[in-house]
Automatic annotation (TrEMBL):
Co-factor requirement: a divalent metal cation
DNA ligase OB-like domain mapped to chain residues: 139-204
Species in which this protein is naturally found: Rotaria magnacalcarata
Keywords, ordered alphabetically: DNA damage, DNA repair, DNA replication, Ligase
Gene Ontology biological-process entries: DNA recombination; DNA repair; DNA replication
Protein name (record): DNA ligase
InterPro entries: APLF_PBZ, DNA_ligase_ATP-dep_cent, DNA_ligase_ATP-dep_CS, DNA_ligase_OB, NA-bd_OB-fold, NAD_dep_DNA_ligaseB
Ranges of residues in domain ATP-dependent DNA ligase family profile: 8-125
PROSITE patterns in the record: DNA_LIGASE_A2
Region of interest: Disordered: 252-277
Annotated ranges, domain PBZ-type: 278-297
MF terms (GO), sorted A to Z: ATP binding; DNA ligase (ATP) activity
Length: 297
């Protein structure tokens, strides 16, 4: 099924918790492709950049021009829900996190599409932070030639990974030494238990690695929690919050349209910079982490 012949802003999606599966399908060479795997993919459409109208008008146009009821169409318009305030935002973010989602997007009502970073489109995510031991350095390339490219690090559970972003140029010239402790933030763990998108925050001169290991005995770091690995027996039945996803009936092969927001209006509101959407730290004031990026205490 042909999509409208105009630019569409969207993303290929496979299901919550299936980021690595999606990447694996897309990156496979032609001679190694499993045809049925492509049936798991959906092109989720966020916006129509060249439409020229306000956000609400663009969404109405997409919903009218993307064939949602065609069983041969593997594209779908992402639905929206109107934000009712800070409490609603926090609850929505908590539900998305609990379901394995990455975060939510806030779009200013009546806004135009901007082909750049925009204050009318804001991302809300939950980040985790943790300490790691520096065990090595990887050289930089390009503008970072002769400086630090990435820190080789180790978690309390022994998992090794690299941290390559978040550094100033001065820190790349004089990186944390081997044996030092750093604090970094990340979005989630991969299926193998490695932090995804780790970002350097600071050098912890107030902590030794023995301190971190001792603290890990009483407070379980996210890095040692069991990672739920999605089943490999997939079917196109995964849902995404506030979206109509073209799922397939196992017997008839018919597309099943699902929606959590049939009666909602397509808009969102509020400013993100001043919102504290961090989750509550279960250890409160007794938690040894005191940095501003940690959970709310």
């Amino acid at each position: 099924v042909a999509l409208p012949k105009i630019p569409l802003d969207g993303e290929i999606w496979c299901g919550r918790g299936l980021f690595q599966k999606c990447i694996s399908i897309v990156k496979k060479q032609a001679n190694k492709v499993v045809p049925d795997d492509y049936k798991l993919l959906t092109y989720l459409i966020f916006d129509a950049p060249s439409h020229g109208g306000k956000y609400e008008d663009r969404m109405k146009w997409l919903q009218a021009n993307i064939p949602q009821d065609d069983d041969k169409c593997y594209a779908s318009v992402v639905g929206v829900k109107k934000c009712q305030g800070l409490a609603d935002l926090k609850q929505c973010l908590a539900e998305v996190n609990a379901a394995g989602g990455e975060g939510i997007m806030l779009r200013k009502p009546g806004s135009l599409y901007e082909n750049k970073r925009s204050s009318t489109l804001l991302k809300v995510k939950t980040f985790y932070d943790e300490e790691a031991l520096v065990i090595g350095h990887k050289p930089g390339k390009g503008n970072c030639t002769g400086m630090l490219g990435a820190l080789e690090c180790q978690l309390p559970n022994g998992k090794r990974f690299d941290v390559g972003s978040g550094f100033t140029m001065d820190q790349r010239r004089k990186p944390p030494k081997k044996g030092s402790v750093i604090t970094f933030k990340f979005q989630e763990l991969s299926n193998a238990g490695s932090p995804r998108f780790p970002v350097f925050l600071r050098l912890r001169t107030d902590l030794t690695w023995d301190d971190v290991l001792e603290a890990a005995k009483t407070k379980t770091p996210i890095s040692v929690k069991q990672k739920v690995v999605p089943t490999t027996k997939l079917s196109k039945q995964h849902s995404i919050l506030f979206s109509v996803i073209p799922s397939r009936d196992g017997k008839a092969g018919k597309k099943i349209a699902r929606s959590d927001d049939d009666n909602e209006q397509p808009s969102s509101s509020s400013s993100l910079q001043k919102l504290d959407v961090r989750e509550e730290c279960p250890y409160g004031e007794k938690c040894y982490r005191k940095n501003p990026d940690h959970l709310k205490q």
